[in-house]
Amino acid sequence: MSSTLSFEVFPPNTQVGTEKLFATLEDLRELQPDFISVTCSNNRKTIEETTLKVADYIHNELQVPTIAHLPAAYLDQKQVQRLVEQLDQIGIHQILALRGDISPELPPKKDFTYASDLIDFVKKQAPAFHVSGACYPEAHPESLNRIEDIKSLRQKVSVGCDQLITQLFFDNELFYQFQESCDLADIKVPILAGIMPIVNRKQALRLIKTTNTKLPRKFLAILEKYEHDPVALREAGLAYAVDQIIDLATQDVAGIHLYTMNNAEVAKHIYQNTKNVLSGQIKAV
Ligand code: FAD
Fold it and tell me: Whose Cα sits closest to atom 36 in ligand 1?
């Protein structure tokens, strides 16, 4: 069985950054991804100039299937309706429906308490839209426990979520346990595994500081040993991600969603080193 390969990019805050991203996207197109997803800040003010602009470019200029992320905790129904219409007008019919993070200083609006409220709303407004949802192999940090988290996920799927994309993880065993829990809970939609190759010290330190993700011994050893050797750290980080993907492919994962951090070189390396295992073709010798 083959697995899909898709990429996540984020819209930069500046015009120069956006133009640089457009060049990166040309390189990503060459890798023929199944889709490219574009993140979206919870700050609605800039969405037309950021997520929508980048998504429009990928979909219409590069002709690559595009998923626009849509976090809705700070939006009301009218705003979401308008955004869905705007996406429809530019020809994009795929979204990743999210609640988004809640800032302690800013109370959310009341229309979309959970991502499932958004999925329900979008599916009613635009039934033809393909709607993905986020999921967390190690449970969402706010959830009471894994069982409650899986129940929430089942709710997402029951209101029409077509596909799930995981938070990044570095321990495949946790992903397999999560898949099994989903299966037991009758969650049958494809689950794409989110993989982030670690290629520099800054990224690694940020990850250690901010993430709840379990960092396996083998992974921590790489960070420790090559902390001050950027070339070796990059090589080992890429090899770790490739190893993770190969293992997932052997277990027939539905797809790999690569957190590219807007780095086409990283995506190219992963593609070159996994394209045959992901395509799953049995070649005649
Ligand atoms: P929800 O699914 O609503 O879950 C939030 C919490 O509520 C969880 O603890 C869940 O268990 C619980 N819950 C859900 N439904 C119910 C219910 N019915 N009853 C009780 N409890 C419930 N953030 C951005 O701002 N922009 C992005 O572009 C972005 N992209 C992302 C991409 C991926 C693949 C992932 C995994 C995350 C992304 N995020 C993004 C982060 C995400 O917004 C945060 O993790 C946020 O805190 C939760 O969003 P959610 O959609 O998973 O929320």
Answer: 167
Q: Where are the domains of the chain?
A: 4-278
Q: 153 CA to middle of ligand 1, Å?
A: 10
Q: What is the pLDDT of residues 125-154, one digit of tens each?
A: 999 999 999 999 999 999 999 999 999 999
**Overall pTM surpassing 0.85 (yes/no):** yes
Is pLDDT of 29 > 60? yes
Taking the C-alpha atoms of residue 262 and residue 8, their distance in angstroms, rounded to an integer, is 8
Residue 238: what residue type? Answer: L
The distance from CA 281 to its chain's CA centroid, rounded to whole angstroms, is 25
In short, whether 67's Cβ falls inside 6 Å of ligand 1 is no
| Reported CATH class of domain 4-278 | alpha beta
Which amino acid does the sequence have at 148? E
Token representation of residue 94: 């795929």
At residue 9, φ and ψ (nearest 5 deg) are -125, 160
How open is the CA angle 5-8-14, to the nearest 5 degrees? 150
State how far the Cα of 115 lies from the Cα of 198, in Å rounded to an integer: 29
